[in-house]
Amino acid sequence: MGRELDTACELAAAAGAIVAEAFGQRKEVRLKSPVDLVTQTDREAQELILSGIAKAFPDHAIVAEEGAPSPRVAGPCWYVDPIDGTTNFVHDLPHCSVSIAFFDDGEPRAAAVYDPCKDEMFAAEKGAGATMNRSPIRVSSSLRLGESLLVTGFPYDRRDRVEFYLAYFKAFLLSARDLRRFGSAALDLCYVAASRFDGFWEWGLHPWDTAAGWLIVEEAGGRVSDFDGAPFDPWLPRVLATNGRIHEEILALLATLPADPESVSVRRGPFV
Questions:
Q1: Which of 7, 41, 86, 210 is catalytic?
Q2: Is residue 147 annotated as part of the catalytic site, yes or no?
Q3: Does residue 5 sit in helix, strand or coil?
Q4: What CA dihedral angle connects 124, 7, 235 and 178, to 10 degrees?
Q5: Given 81, 115, 219, 249, which residue is catalytic?
Q6: Per-residue pLDDT tens for 84-124?
Q7: Which one from 18, 49, 62, 83 is the annotated catalytic residue?
Q8: Which of 4, 99, 101, 183 has the fewest CB atoms within 10 Å distance of its CB?
Q9: Catalytic site includes residue 83
Q10: What is the DSSP pairing of strand 29-33 with strand 97-104?
């Protein structure tokens, strides 16, 4: 492994230990929105990661979830999500991850996603394949959408655009073998890479959600794109990741769905 991948894996594991220790404990929770949570553990894990990167690579930029808004960076840059799946973590549901990716010239070069609940480390280095706990992983061999198990998530603005997102969910529910919604986009992508899922789509994600999983899927032999088949851009809000074999079929289905969230009427529920 290269130095960047070694660093990503070491810091993901160390931050994951902080997350694992906090399970079952009372958590200090702050609301970024009614459905977007942050905890003291997020902040502690992120500080560990950022300090480790700064020590190892003092000239590299860092874009992290629990930080000030950041612009695109053309040079060496790290994308960090200290807890992907914070809502699961707050409710002591054991499905979350630490996600760290290293980019250079706008392209992913090394990635680590660690699940502290299952002690699973997903990793990839550009051109060197993808692994889970150091064993090679590959995407599934499913050839048809109707035989595929898919996973998705719902963005934080789901209460304002519920009909729009449910139109997508309904279309895939009628077309795929089945759907799941687990609450950690980074792990959703890794599960596609490890052939646990055949495909994943979601709206409204950020670079720190997808940067690491993007490389892991592609190095496992899969394909990641925008909903129209254009090259994936982690700064844009749409991601489609598949085993590659069902990608075109999913793109055809996506082409039949509304592309603008504002085009579908809003129906808010009785939420606080």
A1: 86
A2: no
A3: helix
A4: 40
A5: 81
A6: 999 999 999 999 999 999 999 999 999 999 999 999 999 99
A7: 83
A8: 183
A9: yes
A10: unpaired
Q: Which of 4, 42, 66, 84 is catalytic?
A: 84
Active site annotation includes 84 = yes
pLDDT at 261 over 90: no
- Cβ-contact 99, 209 below 8 angstroms: yes
Question: Is the alpha carbon torsion for 136, 251, 200, 204 positive or negative?
Answer: positive
Write out the H or E segment, with its range, that includes residue 252: helix 247-254
Is residue 209 annotated as part of the catalytic site, yes or no? Answer: yes
SS3 122: strand
Residue 99's DSSP bridge partners are: 81, 113
Q: For 174-207, write each residue's pLDDT tens digit.
A: 999 999 999 999 999 999 999 999 999 999 899 9
For the CA atoms of 91, 97, 101, 107, the dihedral, rounded to the nearest 10 degrees, stands at -80
Which entry of 41, 49, 62, 65 is annotated as an active-site residue? 65
Q: Is 163 a catalytic residue?
A: no
- The 10 Å CB-count burial string (b at 16+, else e) for 79-115 is bbbbbbbbebbbeeeeebbbbbbbbbeeebbbbbbbb
Span 143-182, pLDDT tens digits: 999 999 999 998 776 566 788 888 899 999 999 999 999 9
Q: What is the pLDDT of residues 19-37, one digit of tens each?
A: 999 998 876 777 665 545 6
Query: Of 209, 218, 219, 249, which one is the catalytic site residue?
Result: 209
Is residue 81 flagged as an active site residue? yes
The reported pTM is 0.91
